[in-house]
Amino acid sequence: MTDFKKPIFLLDWKGTVLNESMEYGASIQQSAMVIARHIKEKSGENLDFEVLYKEIRTAHANTSPQSDWSLSIYDQLPILRNTFKDTEKRHDVIKEAIEARLRYSRENTKVYEGVSSFLDQAQQQGLKVYTMTDAALESVLMQLKQVGLDNHLISKIYGGAAHPESLAAYGVGDIKTPYASFLGDRVKPDGRIIAEIALDHAKNNEGLPDKVAFEDVFGFVPHPEFRLEDQFFASSREKKEYAWLHHAVVLKETKYARILKNVLDSIVVIGDSSRDKLTAYNVISGLAANNKSVGVAFVQASWDKEWVKAHADPKAEEESLHVLHKVTGWSDARIRLLDEIKAKPHVEKCPVALTLKSDQYLRILTSMNEGPLPMKERLFHVASLLKQAEVIPGVIVDPERVVERVHGMQIDQQKRFSERGR
């Protein structure tokens, strides 16, 4: 019988742990206002913010690897180079603009209620909690320090490529939490993001040799349960470039397959968006020859977001999102396709094992016993038991009893499988 282990949590960062969409656009605005003031003082002219945002977007798109968080882009902006010919003065303006941006970010980046409790409980039980994001690593490392989570509660951070000059500018050169970049330009819902983390985990914890490459053990195939019609893409080139939107990563039949299958069956992705859900769905934990195990376990994060609610300003939030969309270096095609795919019917088919709503649910998740079933199936048992409790007025859910009952169900199922095989 397969020897399943404790859950391995993959925690989405931006939007799941903190409200990054509000903070990012507004922090860019702060730097823009500093630039506007200096241009007014220098030339007497008012800055056209839309022109500035367009220049920032171009600079973001031209970073290599592409990043919306590189701080070196300010010195590439034509509006600054043309207004401030003196290099020293231009750099002074840039320094002040960056300081304003980072100061706003520090003051307005808050962790959602429930996240710290979850991390504390996971650490107490010796569970692995990795964070995954397709954002540049430096932005996550900065936020990790800002919110006080650089204290070994997170096992490792996985994200987009880091820019050395930005690591220094963001002040994260002394970060304690281990971190790594994904291979290539991975963007959710690319299932290879999860597979890369699984492979790295297996090398660090399950004895898989370091020499094993991703392509040695994983393949990339059309998704067995859905496909995107040709008209979804604007051109054949676009269809080829974004094939990962409807392809799944699958295990190859190698001597390491069982180890990696155990890891994938132990993974629980915790996220808040359709892209997070699809990322989990785009992984097949079964072998290529028997690819029926579609998707790893996915939990919908619904932390108590009281701080966000208390400080909600709909107008400011709308303006911040407007700025975010104006300055991102993502291509129009990528933005359009990722927006459109959310409306596709298969998104609704992606199974959500559980929705995290309170500390009580967190305790259930972090106290899951070892058992013969993959985490996906174990969590669905938990969800069904919680649902039963919710429909009975006055019933208080005891996390330990729920987990104990699920474990008993797993043992019963194991016995039934054994009896059938006789």
Features:
alpha/beta, Rossmann fold, 3 domains, 7-stranded parallel beta sheet, 50% helix
Written account of the structure:
This protein folds into 3 domains: 8-18 and 111-308, Rossmann fold (3-Layer(aba) Sandwich), CATH 3.40.50; 20-109 and 313-352, no CATH class; 357-420, no CATH class. The chain is 50% helix and 12% strand. It has helices at residues 20-43, 49-62, 78-83, 87-108, 115-124, 137-146, 164-169, 192-205, 214-217, 236-241, 257-266, 274-281, 306-310, 314-327, 332-341, 346-349, 359-366, 375-390, 399-420; strands spanning 8-12, 128-136, 156-160, 179-181, 218-222, 247-251, 267-271, 283-287, 297-301, 354-356. The strands form 2 sheets. Strands 4-3-2-1-7-9-10 form a 7-stranded parallel β-sheet, sandwiched between helices. A 3-stranded mixed β-sheet has the order 5-6-8. Helix 7 links the parallel strand 3 (156-160) and strand 4 (179-181). The longest helix is centred in the N-terminal third of the chain and has 24 residues, at 20-43. The two termini are 14 Å apart.
